[in-house]
Amino acid sequence: MKHYSAFAVAREALRYHTGWERAWRSPEPKKRYDAIIVGAGGHGLATAYYLGKNYGIQNVAVIEKGWLGGGNTGRNTTIIRSNYLQDPSAAIYEKARGLYEDLSQELNYNIMFSPRGVIMLAQTQHEIRGYQRTAHANALQGVQTEWIGPERVKELVPIINLEGPRYPVLGGLWQERGGTARHDAVAWGYARACSAMGMDIIQQCEVTGVRQENGRVVGVDTTKGAIDCDKLGIVVAGHSGQLAEMAGFRLPLEAVALQALVSEPIKPCMDVVVMANTVHGYMSQSDKGEMVIGGGTDAYNNFTQRGSFHHIEETVRALVETFPMISRLKMLRQWGGIVDMTGDRSPILSKTPLQGCFINGGWGTGGFKAIPGSGWGMAQLMATGHSSLTEAFSLDRFKEGRFIDESVAAGVAH
Amino acid sequence: MLILNCPYCGVDAEETELAAGGEAHLKRFGPGSSDDEFHDYLFMRENPKGVHFERWRHANGCGKWFHAARCTQSLEVFGTYSAQTTEPPKEIKDAITAKRPGWTWREFS
């Protein structure tokens, strides 16, 4: 792998950019790997990367049905924060946020991490109490957040309307080191680093079966033939249930569509991320100037990557009241992603009933922010059989009643 | 937009008029059941990419609960039927078979 640097840009400029090489190889699959990761999204690639980097397991393949980073990694609203109420959530999301801080340097790939700050608006009395509680919990967890009043919100977000008739802004939970990153670049950066370690990223290759002997995984069947492996990681978000079925077990997940949209680009007007959970809307401004808007999920199972139009209407209606100046913006694009939701709205990072097979899924509506922490914990779990980061997120927590209840703590925008 | 025909009042109701009620034909487990049964009843929903049976409520209409057979991949609706039943009626099953030969869902096919 050639190092990216200012010098490399100058060198290539002098020779008409003929020296750039492909960021990752696209090899044909080998017969056997030590570990196979299904799903070349952010979480899958991060898992592979930390398997190689932290545990020296580099004979790894990442198998992807479509193209790398083409699922939810390329469909989210790029928000990074770790202001969660429950300890296990705060631990894994804060680990991720911390890793994001210098991920560009580590991967030698600019992921454009922008710790511009995230505000979660309190627009009801209930939310004031909820976010003050979260701020106290974060103080104990070592996550830097604070409760701020409406005046400070107005200072940080001059375009906000504090006095909305239905949803007045009563304050907010402020995480100064939260922010955004370039979502595609996170997948691309990890992919490049994995490829440089000698890992094979195999795109356009669908897993059609999981092969097992005596209760242990021995490989997968794919559209490019059978591939053997010692360990298998299933990291496929919306299709976790389908993969689990191939492996012979079930998951407590349901797939629904989550939508987002962006406006036409405008001049800089908002340099923080604002989330308004009461009205199911959140907004930030991209470096190109587009207002990036996220909405709510559909209430029913859905694999179409579209979502219902009325959810956009509800989200935009509420945001227009909170940010009157966006009322005349044209919306450029709308898209949906299939998110896998668990009962307690927390992910599953776990061993499975099939030996050697591990699952990382159920991130629901909030996976992007967790990518580095999720990969870090999942790699530890796959390599050593145990990880303090993922321990609480095991599959048996539902049977044992150990919920990590973020459905109340995080609301819908998660 | 999803449109379901309410089998009670006969109205073709749009999605905004309806409330989704999750998986249909659940068998309920309570006190005296095993941990596995209770766990599955509470958390293990069917999550098919294809034929699915659901409960819906005509919330902003006649208010009645009913059942719908739907494809989660294409959003095609195969039909709606009464909530007063523990399994899909034959005409609904036949309508699905006409479009998705060989379908199965839990113990139904």
Secondary structure tally, helices of chain A: 12
Q: Which CATH class of the largest domain in chain A?
A: Alpha Beta
Q: Can you tell me the CATH class of chain B?
A: Alpha Beta
Helix content of chain A: 25-40%
Shape of chain A: globular
CATH homologous superfamily descriptor of chain B: Folate-binding superfamily
* Oligomer kind: heterodimer
Which homologous superfamily in CATH is the superfamily of the largest domain in chain A?
FAD/NAD(P)-binding domain
Poorly predicted runs of 5 or more residues of chain B: none
Which structural class do the helices and strands of chain A define?
Answer: alpha/beta
Order of helices and strands of chain B: EEEHEEEH
Please give the largest β-sheet of chain B. 4 strands, antiparallel
The sequence of SSEs of chain A as H and E is HEHEEHHEHEHEEHEEEEHEEEEHEEEHHH
Strand order of the largest sheet of chain B: 3-4-5-6
Give the domain tally of chain B. Answer: 1
CATH fold field value of chain B: Folate-binding fold
DSSP E strands of chain A, number: 18
Mean of the pLDDT scores of chain A?
94
Shape of chain B: globular
Protein name (chain B): Sarcosine oxidase subunit delta
Pfam family, one (chain B): SoxD
GO molecular function (chain B): sarcosine oxidase activity
InterPro entries (chain B): SoxD, SoxD_sf
Name the features.
heterodimer; A: alpha/beta; FAD/NAD(P)-binding domain; D-Amino Acid Oxidase, Chain A, domain 2; 2 domains; 8-stranded mixed sheet; 26% strand; B: alpha+beta; Folate-binding fold; 4-stranded antiparallel sheet; two-stranded antiparallel ribbon; SoxD_sf (chain B); sarcosine oxidase activity (chain B); SoxD (chain B); Sarcosine oxidase subunit delta (chain B)
